[in-house]
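idk why but the lab printer keeps eating my pages so im just putting this in chat instead. protein + tryptophanyl-5'AMP:
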Amino acid sequence: MTQAPSTALSPNAAFTPRVFSGIQPSGGLTLGNYLGALKRFAEMQDEGFESIYCLVDMHAITVWQDPVALANQTREAAAAFIAAGVDPARSVLFNQSQVSGHAELAWIFNCVARLGWMNRMTQFKDKTAGKNAENASLGLYAYPSLMAADILLYHATHVPVGEDQKQHIELTRDIAAKFNHDYGVEFFPITEPVIEGAATRVMSLRDGTKKMSKSDPSDASRINLTDDADAIASKIRKAKTDPEPLPETLDGLKERPEAKNLVNIYAALSGMTAEAVVGEFAGKGFGTFKPALAELAVAQIAPITTEMNRLMADPAEIDRILGAGAEKADAIAAPILARTQEIVGMIRSRAR
Ligand code: TYM
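predcted complex ->
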C-alpha cells in the first residue's frame, strides 16, 4: 500500500483510519512473521497511519508457556518490532496483558459470538488435529473472540496480517456487525484485513505445502530472526527444491511449491514482483538462485538480529517502553470500553 486508503465509500467512513496488529510471543519469530507482518507494520507506520502494535501474551497462554520463557520471549518480540522499524515514539507498542480492556471486551464478545462461528475456525481445528481436542484449553477455543476484542477495543479500521489470519478478521467483522445490530448502534467499525505483498504466506523450507512456523519441530524449516548470517545462508542452501531451472513465467511455478516459495521470499525481500524475479532468473538453476537469495536474506535479516541483540542487552529499557506503550494504549481503549459497557447496560458509577 503506497497511500492511506480512502474511507469515503467504506462502512468505516465515520472512523479515523487506525491500524492494529499483534504477534504471539510464544517462541521466536520467523521470516514468515517478518515478511507477512512486521515489515508491513513498519511500512504502515511510515505511511503515516496511527498504528497500535501488540505482543499478545494473553493469546500465547492459550497453550501452556514456561513463565520465565514467556517474559523473555515477549521482550525479544518487542526488540524484533523495534529492530524491524516500529518506532515506539510514533507507534504504540505494548504487551496485551497490561491493558485490562482486552479481557473485559473479550468477555462481552464471548456473549455476542455464536458457538457455530467458533466451530468453523480452521486454526482451532489445525491446532488440535491429531490431539485430543477435549483436552485443549477453553482459551484456545475462545481465542478468536479475544482477537476481535484486541482490534475493536481501539476501533481499528485496518489490520495488517498474513493470509492465515484472514478467517479471524472475518469473524471480527461478524462480531462487530452483530454487536451493532443487536444493540441498534453503529459503534464498532467493520475492520479491513490488509493482506498484501509477495509473502503473505511464507512456506516451510522443507515442505512447500506447509506454512513456515515457529512451532514446526524442524529448525531447518524456518529462518528465525535470531539466526546469524551463517545459519541463514546454510538453511537457504539446504532448502528443498527440484532439479528444474526457474521458468520464464509464474505459470511455470504452479506445480512447484518449494520453488514458488523461494521466488516469493526473494520478491518480498527485494521489493520486486514475483514476475520480475522469474524474469531475472529464467533458465537459471538453484545453484545460481539460492546464493543470490541467501545474500539478500542475510543483508536484510542480519542487521535486524544485531539490533535485537543490542536491545536485549537492556531488558529494563524494553519493559519501560512496553509500560509507556500500555499507558498510551489504555488511554485510547478506556473510553471505547466504557461506552461499550454503557451500550450493553452495565452501570458505570465508580470513578476509574
Ligand atoms: P501469529 O503470532 O501466529 O503471527 C503473527 C503474524 O505473522 C503472520 N505470519 C505469517 N505471515 C506469512 N507467512 C507465514 N509463514 C507466517 N506466519 C505467521 C501472521 O499472519 C500474523 O499476521 N492470532 C494472531 C495474533 C493476534 C492478532 C490480533 C493479529 C492476536 N490478536 C489482532 C492481528 C490483530 C496470531 O496468532 O499471529
